[in-house]
Amino acid sequence: MRIAHLSDLHYGTRTLEEADRCLAHAVDRIGALGVDAAVLSGDATDHALALHSPAAARLLTQLRRLADHCPVLVLQGTYAHEPPGALDVLRTLGGRHPIHVADRIQQLALTQAGHWTASAAWCFDVLPADAAAVFCCVPTVNKATVAAAVGAAQAGAELGDQLATLLAGFAPSHRAARARGLPTIGVSHGTVFGCLSEHGVPTAGFDHEFTTGALFAAEAQAFLLGHIHRHQAWRQHDACGTQCIAYAGSIGRFHHGEEGDKGFLLWQVEAHRADCRLVPTPARLTVDIVFAGRPDLDALRLAAAREAVAGASVRVRWTIADEERCAVDRAAMLRILAGATDVQLEGRIVPLARARAPGIAQLPSLADKVQAWARTVQVDPDPLLACLAELAASPPDDTAARALALPPAALRPDWAELPPEALAAAV
Ligand SMILES: [Mn+2]
Questions:
Q1: How many Å apart are CA 191 and CA 8, to the nearest integer?
Q2: C or N: which end of the chain has fewer Cβ atoms within 10 Å?
Q3: How far, in Å, from the CA of 357 to the mean position of ligand 1?
Q4: What separation in Å is there between the alpha carbon of 155 and the centre of ligand 1?
Q5: Domain ranges of the chain
Q6: How far apart are CA 247 and CA 126, in angstroms?
Q7: Closest by alpha carbon to 163, among 236, 217, 205?
């Protein structure tokens, strides 16, 4: 059985161009390659879409085209991206082949006639006689529901434990399917402990949904995952034959700094073996140019030539001190990068750091604090302490009158140059 596995389409206002160019290409390729089914493993949308938004219309158009090629299974993804009910409209979309929306834990049979049959409960009591393949679907678990049942502190770890129990519970039906020579396929959306993010960072923590061990323990030949936007796969050979778990990754490149190819997976799944390969989509090229200090325009020109920025999305980042912030010529940078599809300029300004006197806040009197400060900045504290004593002893009006009676230059040297009316305003 050949299955196309797409994930993380993230249709939204901002992402529409990238998502639609890549998905349109993928649907064309799937039509040309010929598959028995297509699986979308979550995050079809980036946020709640209004029905009149161009993103909604384009997504429905592409999924309808997909359903004209093969049966389609759509899994509920992250609720922040796909609010509950967002996928309901797909049930009415029609097409030459059926679209099934899996928004609860369930098993599915893809029948020999190419229809989806869903289990009434979380799994089949008896596999349908006309099944051509068996799918188990584990949509995103709402952590809030788990937290409500076991408490917020336990929710993270409990989620993993409960999912591991559930996955192991699918194993007997997968063994039965394998005995009948049927391919077995798991579909889910979540984070595998230790997987690599699209930025190349390993994820490690105790509140991730799965371990590879828990997924393999479901004894499905193939496990199709969504959520992480980087394609990656794990394989195991044992009594069940060859098992493979894989993230398809996102269909397009939605953020700067995402490594690797984007695309969809073409799976070959049989009763005792499974494998997949990435079919790339024309995801946008991104180029990152980073300066440790002030952006150097000559270096930027060289980098622009070397990285071939024409047609790419370019991000320039720099870090400068506060006093240099006016020395950055954004217009000149934009001129150098004129060939890019879009340019993101991100300057980080490091605020001036002033020496502080450690422990000063704990000192009991203001005089002690002045002395501690004077020691830190290495100045003579005596004139300041004299002023302080005078301030403490005199009424405020007298202090102000004495200050105003001083020649301006004694207050601040630059005031000596001011005309009298400006001086009055300054004082
Ligand atoms: Mn996603």
A1: 13
A2: C
A3: 48
A4: 21
A5: 2-280, 286-350, 360-426
A6: 30
A7: 217
**In this structure, CATH architecture of domain 2-280:** 4-Layer Sandwich (3.60)
> What tens-digit pLDDT sequence spans the chain (427 residues)?
999 999 999 999 999 999 999 999 999 999 999 999 999 999 999 999 999 999 999 999 999 999 999 999 999 999 999 999 999 999 999 999 999 999 999 999 999 999 999 999 999 999 999 999 999 999 998 888 888 888 888 887 888 889 999 999 999 999 999 999 999 999 999 999 989 988 888 887 666 789 999 999 999 999 999 999 999 999 999 888 999 999 999 999 999 888 889 999 999 999 999 999 999 999 999 888 899 888 999 999 988 888 778 888 999 999 988 878 788 899 999 999 998 988 999 998 887 666 667 778 788 888 898 888 888 888 888 988 988 888 888 888 888 888 888 776 666 655 566 666 665 655 4
Distance 43 CA to ligand 1 centre (A): 5
Instruction: State the distance from the centre of ligand 1 to the C-alpha of 330, rounded, in angstroms.
Output: 33
Interhelix angle for 382-393 vs 366-377, to 10°?
A: 160
Distance in Å, CA 227 to ligand 1 centroid: 4
Separation of alpha carbons 190 and 185, rounded Å:
16
pTM (predicted TM-score):
0.78
